[in-house]
Automatic annotation (TrEMBL):
This is Zinc transport system substrate-binding protein. It comes from Haladaptatus litoreus. Signal peptide: none annotated. It comes from the Archaea. Keywords: Signal, Transport.
Amino acid sequence: MGTALFASGTIAGCLGSSSGDGSDGSTTVQTSFFVLTDFARNVVGDAANAESLVPIGQHGHGWEPSAQVQRDAMQSDAVVYMGEGFQPWADRMVKNVEQDRPEITIVEARHGISLLSAPGHSDEHGHEGDNHDGEHEEENHGNETDHGHEEGEHNDGDNHEGENHGNENDTNHEEGEHHDESENGHDHGASDPHFWLDPQRAKQAVSTIESGLSEMDAVSGEALTGNAEDFRNQLDELDSTFESELESTERNAVLVAGHNAFQYLGERYGFEIHALTGLAPDSSPSPKDVQRAQNTIEEHDITHVLAPVFESDRAAKQLVSETDAKDHLPITPIPSVTEEWSEKDWGYIEIMEQVNLPSLKTALGVK
């Protein structure tokens, strides 16, 4: 279990998402990324309020928060963020909190988790620790550099097969986001940050969050331990479901018509991932990228192209129209939630089960 970075203390405060004045004395945990919000909510249960600093539909990548977001963090009892370099704005926020309110608990959820290399890097494992679950460590699923093994933030908002995921148009990366790779956290260097798509690595983050939040004076560590264990068991069940459902397939490769965010899924469950572009979700495919994707469709007899929900589905539609592929399907690395998912109260597990798994089963041709 990775160790959280924390400073213990209690500050009364109840905050809504990016708002609130702490007037009712509740214990509040603020988070910088949707997956972390969901993990924290499952860990704290009724013991505290876990809130997102980032509005619904926003990634928190390349996004510049308002002054209210900084105030919300300063008024909280704990802040959970991914780790340095993932969201530059969150890094700055955490430094300000540590300087001005050192009593607030800070949890680096990614601490100690072994990261895969970014596509194109030869060093495959281990940028943050040696805590990979191990069951699949010796298998290189979807991480050879010649496949460009994609981890794109797959289409969490396009209109796929009649479902309105909340992002039909091409202004996909949330209004107000600015995508300069040098500043927006997408230039991730030699490691792939999307570890949470592997439920076993997700379990490690849950344990780190549990460890850090248990240092808050206002909550019972015993209650958090029970909640965290229940959630880790649910993640084990999710992992087993993916393994059993994807065990026997007609093909061993998928094509993502977007950026490269899914290699943890491929590595965990034994299939190759090909993508149009690299790690930056706002990258535009070149004609060479499109030609390579068309060749991939032909080579692997791909019938369904995967389209990241929070990205434009234009490329996916083009590939379907110009090849033998039949349709495109939604997939997501869960950088955020759509309004529809939020209304259904879907968290990480529900999105993995209801969006990613059905699309992967169809794309891989489950027997």
